[in-house]
């Protein structure tokens, strides 16, 4: 999708051609107006592939979680919330292209698009942040977590957070600062602040994931030391001169190393997929804001070039929407077992969980 200046909704191509013939100062003014979206063949194919791959995977995860009682816990409730957000993002991307292709005469459809654009991905980031905070609480205070955190409370928390996100993203409309467009355009100022909120949320998620990783590693090492102390104490009490089996002596250390490796892989996968998909768009709008503040034109910014990058950066968000559920399927042994019970004809257990038969499930599976 490409964004153009929307100075007159009936003559948008002419406005775009005129905008290309202006100087950098006029490009600065272009960014002040609404941005009109047009269909790009390359991005259309990318969205179509993301839709065809993402929707079946998300429906599969949602059906398995809902049908399997063993997955009815707060951790998977957050996962189901992530799936709902991912599904909404893909539906919103398809709805956006339908508006551009069919151009409905009723302005209500364009107003719905203008109100909702940007909110689904913000809801996804908020859900991810809440899920990571929940994992930190589960590791730090497992008894309190088991007592106070329930599926119902998680559901209420997620729905409340989504309503607040929609309320905040549309605040400029009901405060009278902006008017809802009837021409299927995107208000650049709203997209600018939504992208900045994405940047802040991504930063918080990365910090939270690192905190959970450190907490998990400390917990695993504490357990290893505790097991070693118990073994030495038992050996002194029995006064045994027998040499124990080497496997049992080194099993805790090997297990801890394996679990720390899994925690590291989880951290790297989560942070990398998030940064690759979300940071480019936020960085583009941050650069536009910096150029907008530069009144003396010291940076010599080309606003038209930055605006041209926006559609490609936006569609990178769909990459995160598709990769996230795939990572959950491939790394969760609990989900793999539930999937084999729900869909018996699926035979990929050895591919994802063969290594889990000898080692107890790790704490990082909860992430």
Per CATH, which architecture?
Up-down Bundle
Helical amount: over 70%
Which shape, going by the Cα principal axes?
globular
Backbone CA Rg: 25 Å
Spell out the CATH superfamily: Rhodopsin 7-helix transmembrane proteins
Span of the ends, CA to CA: 34 Å
Number of strands: 3
By secondary-structure content and strand pairing, the structural class works out as: mainly alpha
Largest sheet: 3 strands, antiparallel
Low-pLDDT residue spans: 1-34, 239-252, 348-367
What's the pLDDT, averaged over the residues?
Answer: 73
Q: State the strand order across the main sheet.
A: 1-2-3
Strand content: under 5%
- What is the helix tally? 14
Do you know the CATH topology?
A: Rhopdopsin 7-helix transmembrane proteins
The H-and-E topology, N to C, reads as EHHEHHHHHHHEHHHHH
What is the total domain count? 1
CATH class: Mainly Alpha
């Amino acid at each position: 999708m490409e964004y153009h200046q929307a100075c007159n909704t009936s003559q948008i191509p002419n406005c775009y051609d005129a905008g290309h013939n202006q100087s950098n100062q006029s490009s600065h003014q272009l960014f002040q107006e609404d941005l009109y979206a047009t269909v790009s063949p390359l991005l259309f194919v990318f969205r179509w592939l993301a839709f065809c791959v993402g929707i079946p995977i998300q429906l599969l995860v949602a059906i398995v979680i809902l049908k399997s009682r063993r997955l009815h816990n707060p951790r998977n409730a957050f996962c189901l919330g992530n799936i709902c957000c991912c599904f909404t993002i893909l539906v919103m991307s398809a709805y956006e292209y339908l508006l551009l292709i069919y151009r409905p005469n009723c302005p209500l459809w364009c107003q719905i698009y203008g109100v909702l654009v940007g909110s689904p991905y913000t809801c996804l980031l908020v859900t991810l942040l809440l899920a990571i905070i929940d994992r930190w609480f589960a590791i730090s205070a497992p008894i309190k977590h088991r007592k106070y955190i329930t599926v119902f409370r998680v559901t209420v928390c997620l729905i409340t957070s989504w309503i607040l996100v929609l309320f905040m993203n549309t605040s400029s409309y009901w405060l009278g600062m902006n008017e809802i467009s009837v021409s299927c355009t995107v208000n650049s100022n709203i997209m600018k602040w939504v992208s900045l909120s994405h940047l802040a949320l991504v930063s918080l998620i990365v910090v939270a994931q690192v905190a959970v990783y450190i907490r998990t590693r400390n917990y695993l090492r504490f357990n290893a030391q505790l097991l070693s102390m118990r073994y030495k104490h038992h050996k002194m009490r029995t006064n045994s001169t027998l040499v124990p089996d080497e496997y049992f002596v080194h099993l805790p250390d090997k297990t801890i190393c394996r679990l720390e490796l899994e925690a590291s892989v989880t951290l790297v996968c989560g942070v990398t997929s998030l940064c690759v998909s979300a940071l480019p768009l936020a960085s583009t709008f941050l650069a536009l804001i910096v150029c907008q503040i530069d009144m003396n034109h010291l940076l010599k910014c080309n606003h038209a070039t930055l605006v041209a990058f926006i559609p490609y950066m936006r569609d990178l968000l769909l990459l995160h929407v598709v990769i996230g559920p795939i990572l959950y399927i491939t790394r969760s042994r609990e989900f793999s077992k539930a999937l084999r019970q729900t869909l018996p004809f699926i035979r990929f257990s050895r591919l994802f969980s063969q290594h889990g038969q000898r080692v107890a499930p790790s704490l990082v599976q909860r992430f």
